[in-house]
Design a protein that fits this description.
The protein has 14 helices and 8 strands. The chain is an alpha/beta fold.
């Protein structure tokens, strides 16, 4: 079997191409939601991770972390948010609410009671809303949340590039997904998910070396359990398959990330206020056996939030109300940027997975 045939066979697993439907309500019609799970998902005794991906994150993230999930003895879920993959698009003002409606129904569909939450970049907005409104889906014996390269508004990060972008009219984002699709398919290495043209183009000016390196045989075996030639074919097919499906949701995701309108971020419009409100609610809980664990992984050089965004995020989770309420741990992944914090070799996903799998009750 050729490397290409092997890659197609691996990516065609039915676990990576699932869907269910949100029933129509008085606020929206029936909506289709596509998602992926790790291939070991039928093992019901294993803990479950719900990954809340970045701006261009899709269910295909599941393919990258499937082998790691299996070896870490966890199960993994990735969901296409509205306007991605086969998921129905919705108005920008409904994106967060539809996500909050999707999560509990998806978990019920999968017969899952509890999850750990992990987010990257723009997924921060959705994760924080999930944590506040759906706190009960975390395991009371070990509530666990991890935020990698958390997104911070340009108002607090002071990143000039994003401040300028936020002043563009909404019409400027109408073709965003198509432009970024061209950039990602032709100029940017596969795996640059969280901002496409913004973060990937900006990363050209960072001092870190290019991440477009040939996958070693050792890394190929660790990631996929196959040879490097097959992994190279997989990387190419992932980008091709991903952009062959709907990616129009990226237009609204870009506007949402840049604060395109009051109320788009739900309960976390103001992170500082969010932390105070969340901690107040957390202290009223009586069904948690342990403090919530909140792990934050910063990149060494993050051009999307800068040093100002990092300092702000540290400050809001360092407020007095957090002590004795949330067990916050913040680390920096050495040698990483906003994108490569998810890198299989440099990132810390493997440590997070093994922490969840090795210590879950």
């Amino acid at each position: 079997m050729s490397s290409l045939d092997s890659a197609i066979r691996l990516l065609a697993d039915r676990k990576y191409h699932q869907c269910f439907r949100l029933a129509a309500t008085d606020k929206h019609e029936e909506l289709r939601v596509t998602f992926a799970t790790s291939t070991n998902f039928d093992d019901n005794v294993l803990p479950v991770v719900l990954f809340v991906g970045p701006m261009f994150g899709s269910r295909y993230f599941c393919t990258d972390y499937n082998k790691l999930a299996i070896s870490s003895k966890i199960r993994f879920i990735c969901v296409d948010r509205p306007g991605f993959g086969g998921s129905s698009n919705v108005p920008i003002e409904d994106r967060v609410n539809i996500w909050l409606e999707t999560v509990p129904q998806l978990l019920k569909h999968l017969n899952v009671n509890y999850v750990s939450l992990i987010s990257h970049s723009a997924g921060t907005i959705y994760l924080l809303n999930t944590l506040y409104h759906l706190r009960h889906i975390l395991d009371p014996k070990r509530p666990y949340v991890a935020l990698l390269a958390p997104w911070v508004s340009q108002e607090h990060s002071g990143v000039t590039m994003l401040s300028l972008a936020s002043k563009l009219p909404n019409a400027a984002f109408s073709g965003w997904s198509g432009l970024v699709g061209f950039i990602n398919r032709t100029l940017v290495p596969a795996g640059s998910w969280s901002g496409g043209i913004i973060s990937s183009s900006a990363s050209l000016f960072q001092s870190s070396p290019s991440e477009a390196e040939v996958t070693s045989e050792e890394t190929a075996q660790a990631r996929w359990g196959t040879d490097a030639a097959t992994v190279a074919a997989i990387d190419g097919l992932q980008a091709k398959y991903c952009w062959a499906e709907c990616m129009s949701g990226a237009n609204d995701e870009a506007r949402l990330c840049l604060g395109g309108g009051k109320g788009l971020w739900g309960v976390c419009e103001d992170y500082s206020e969010y932390v105070r409100k969340f901690c107040a609610a957390e202290r009223q809980r009586s069904d948690a056996d342990r403090l919530l664990e909140l792990h934050v992984v910063f990149a060494t050089s993050d051009i999307m939030i800068g040093t100002g965004g990092k300092a702000y995020f540290e400050e809001v989770w360092g407020q007095d109300c957090v002590a004795g309420c949330v067990d916050v741990k913040m680390v920096q992944a050495p040698g990483t940027n906003h994108e490569t914090v998810l890198n299989f070799e440099k990132g810390l996903m493997h440590k997070i997975f093994k922490d969840i799998g090795g210590n879950a009750a």
